[in-house]
Specification:
Layout lengths: L1 H7 L8 E5 L4 H16 L5 E9 L8 H11 L3 E6 L11 H19 L4 E3 L4 H15 L8 E4 L4 E4 L7 H11 L15 H15 L3 H8 L10
Parallel strand pairs: 1-2, 1-4, 2-3, 4-6
Antiparallel strand pairs: 5-6
Helix pairs in contact: 2-6, 5-7, 5-8
């Protein structure tokens, strides 16, 4: 499914340098292995490297030694960057927003300064559906996580190789591989809008098992004639 997503959304082109953002969670590890495997097919010649951002003032800690060893096993160079999000000075902004903003800023700067054309993120289908629900309910517009997104006038494209996979898919693969768990999970992970959206989708799936898939596909089947 990862290869299908890469081809369907034209995520990777000949000669690309791809930077994979690896948080240490199961999704980013699955993505990194998928990219390394796709590279071996040699249907498209590209380079892939990984990067892990450690945010010191957030209670989220991955096993750096495991990430280093895993990347070496896959034959993927990995970089480590340490930053601070400044949560104490965030004001009324949500901690997840502030942390994410600083991490992405660091990722964008690293990609730009080191000649990467693509930045790969580990979001999957469920993340996309949750984002759709959040944006509709809280912000009043229909938008989500595209498989490929042009940024900075095309100098960088953000890609999501797992966009056609579900959380269940990545969880099962992670169990097979025996991925190590985070040393310390984020203390704010249960306080986000995403967690609320996830519970709502679970309620919809209790009514109709394919609700999440249908919501995802609905974003590609918009009948504007029947909208206000």
């Amino acid at each position: 499914m990862t290869a299908k997503a890469i081809n369907q959304y034209h995520m990777i082109e000949e000669g690309d340098r791809v930077l994979a953002a690896v948080s240490g969670g199961k999704d980013s590890l699955v993505m990194l292995e998928a990219l390394a495997a796709f590279k071996k097919f040699k249907t498209i010649r590209f380079e892939v490297e990984a990067i892990h951002i450690d945010v010191e003032d957030v209670g989220y800690l991955a096993d750096g030694n495991f990430l280093q060893a895993y990347a070496e096993k896959l034959g993927v160079p990995i970089h480590f960057k340490t930053i601070e999000a400044g949560l104490e000075n965030r004001g009324k902004k949500a901690p997840c927003f502030v942390c994410s903003w600083h991490r992405r800023k660091t990722l964008f700067e690293f990609a730009k300064n080191n000649g990467f054309q693509k930045l790969a993120m580990g979001h999957h289908l469920d993340d996309a559906v949750e984002t759709l629900m959040i944006n509709m309910a809280y912000h009043g517009h229909i938008s989500s996580l595209p498989g490929k997104l042009k940024m900075f006038d095309g100098a960088l494209h953000l890609i999501r190789p797992l966009i056609l996979l579900t959380d269940k898919d990545t969880r099962e693969f992670a169990n097979i591989r025996g991925f190590t768990k985070l040393k310390q999970s984020c203390p704010f992970e249960d306080l986000t809008k995403r967690n609320t959206a996830r519970k709502l989708i679970e309620q919809l799936e209790a009514i109709h098992p394919k609700a999440a898939f249908n919501l995802f596909n609905a974003m590609k089947n918009i009948d504007e004639e029947y909208l206000p």
